[in-house]
Design a protein that fits this description.
Layout (H helix, E strand, L loop, with lengths): L13 E7 L15 H10 L18 H11 L3 E6 L20 H23 L5 E6 L5 H14 L2 E5 L19 H10 L2 E5 L14 H8 L2 H12 L2 H4 L5 E4 L4 H17 L14 H4 L5 H8 L8
Parallel strand pairs: 1-2, 2-3, 3-4, 4-5, 5-6
Length: 310
């Protein structure tokens, strides 16, 4: 069939969820000198819980030539990097989902590790600037630190967005993402035209990992905790206040989106003060009253999905 504008003869494939990172010891030069001794001690005892980081093919995470050759073989024009290797001071836990730092001392070390990964990305992206973009990884624990890192990352010219992890329900140390304390992050990302990306995996609540069903429950629920963020941002009015802000859930599937939006579309109108609903009206509030679009309309305008194919 002859190609027409409606039937393109070829497609440009960009992978929105490739994983990459430095080999463990290669992160040391990217750390501040003050952390070098702590890093040496930590690296000597760290054991990776991830099989794909200790087998022969692990080098595809950091081997530029290998990655480019595999991209060419797969017909992939460009890639967006998400972290995959172990950054400095990454915790070891039977629960392999990544929890947020629980105190300031842990935050200082893990934040230095995340910053080291961000700086490694700058060098790695420079090897293929037309085909590779990174994500500015931040923690929600310290908003001011996150803002400084986002501004720094934007100046590098190699980042396509901000990787913000979900917050576990009931986390005693970090506020949920519908909290108003994060407004400066949404504002800055909107101003800089940086997409907020959230990957499935983090955000699981603490759970016993010594039970026969522990790992099965962990993996089957893993994406669930990140999927909560879409509704949180809609109900908090984030997309109402920032109509150009983009949010992209990755590796969380897609079937859940329709069900969540159907629920929100049905409930939100009844929660508004103008509805006069004696039951649901008490659960609305000013953020819900301020919504001028339906939840589905916000999702259509502000959200993009990155799905995996197996």
């Amino acid at each position: 069939m002859m190609a027409t504008p409606e039937t393109p003869s070829r497609y440009t494939v960009i992978s929105a969820d490739t994983h990459a990172g430095a080999d463990l010891l290669e992160y040391k030069p990217y750390l501040p000198q003050a952390f070098h001794d702590d890093f040496d001690a930590w690296a000597k005892t760290y054991a990776s819980p991830f099989d794909d980081l200790i087998i022969a093919t692990a080098k595809r995470n950091w081997d530029h030539e290998l990655r480019i050759s595999e991209m060419d073989a797969d017909g992939v024009a460009a890639e967006l990097l998400l972290p995959n290797t172990v950054p400095p001071f990454f915790p070891t836990s039977p629960n392999i989902t990544i929890s947020l730092p629980e105190n300031r001392a842990e935050f200082e070390h893990r934040w230095a590790g995340v910053q080291a990964h961000n700086r490694w990305q700058v060098d790695f992206c420079s090897l293929a600037p037309a085909r590779r973009r990174g994500l500015i990884q931040v923690f929600p624990n310290d908003v001011d630190a996150a803002l400084d890192e986002i501004r720094w990352g934007n100046e590098q010219g190699c980042f396509g967005g901000v990787l913000l992890p979900p917050v576990s329900p009931g986390d005693p140390n970090v506020a949920p993402l519908f909290h108003t304390r994060y407004e400066p992050i949404w504002q800055l990302c909107s101003e800089l035209d940086l997409t907020i990306v959230q990957h499935g995996g983090p955000g699981s609540p603490a759970m016993p990992m010594d039970q026969p069903a522990s790992n099965a429950v962990l993996i089957t629920e893993m994406a669930l905790w990140a999927q909560r963020t879409l509704g949180h941002l809609i109900l908090a009015g984030v997309f109402e206040r920032h109509p150009t802000l983009r949010f992209a859930p990755t590796e969380q599937g897609t079937l859940w989106v329709q069900q969540q939006l159907m629920t929100l579309d049905a409930m939100v109108p009844t929660m508004k003060s103008e509805a006069g609903n004696r039951t649901y009206g008490m659960f609305g509030g000013s953020s819900v009253d301020g919504l001028t679009l339906t939840p589905s309309q916000y999702a259509q305008r502000n959200c993009y999905l990155a799905s995996e194919f197996r």
